[in-house]
Amino acid sequence: MKTKAIKKNNSDNVWIYNNKRFIVITVAVMIFIILLLQINFNALLPIKKIRAQGEFINVTEKMILDAISVDVHGGYLKVNVHHLQTKIEKLPWVKVAAVRRVWPDSIVVTIKEQKAYAVWKSNSLLNELGEKFEPKSIILNNLPILNGPDNLNVKVMSEYKIIEAQLNTIGLSVDVFHLNARRAINLKLANSIQISLGRSEYQLRLKRFITAFKLSLRKYSENIEYVDMRYTNGFSIKWKENTQAATAENVLRGVLDV
């Protein structure tokens, strides 16, 4: 009886051993096959073409290829399109990028460029939302210059748009918009007139300036250097040198009721 029991135990041990060995071999073979297939797919389906599309003004296809070419590896199935997208969106003039595979051997990149609406502190640009981006070089191209405390670029852009829209109704535009640390607004217009609006009720003060400009200031705008709107019911004017006294008197008569 003992002999039979020993034989049965040995038989069970052999069966367990053989099954474990079978499982190990099977797993190893599967891993080998997966690796082999992956290697073959990478060899059979390499990325051969990268195509960029979009409205190119400040970004070129070469800039995109230079940014991602070293990362296009691993074949069609393995290339990391999300990583490529992240790298492309780090290019200064790229606002958003989309990267997709195109069977059997291509990558297609679609970009949307940033559009510069203003210069921020002379060393950055702002898009229409006031978001900052920093190209290597800045060409002003008649863009307004906006200044303000750090991290308030979105607020500054918003207030600039409000003021610019109102000034445009009387044929004026802002060259320089400055929001100082006390949140007071100062402007320099395209016709060189400087305006202080202060930090409170600036829209009411701007409206008062627009009314005065329509009534009388427009005619004498070439003689005006600075307008201070920070008064409760009026404003003061600093005239350019050599301005005739009669000019100031005529303007005063024209705006007494503003």
UniProtKB/TrEMBL annotation:
Residues 45-114 form the POTRA domain. It holds the Pfam family FtsQ_DivIB_C. It is found in: Membrane. Coiled coil: none annotated. One of its GO terms (cellular component) is membrane. InterPro entries: Cell_div_FtsQ/DivIB_C, FtsQ, FtsQ_C_sf, POTRA, POTRA_FtsQ_type. Keywords: Cell cycle, Cell division, Cell inner membrane, Cell membrane, Membrane, Transmembrane, Transmembrane helix. The chain crosses the membrane at residues 21-41. GO terms for biological process: cell septum assembly. Gene3D superfamilies: Cell division protein FtsQ/DivIB, membrane protein fhac. Its main location: membrane. PANTHER family: CELL DIVISION PROTEIN FTSQ. This is Cell division protein FtsQ.
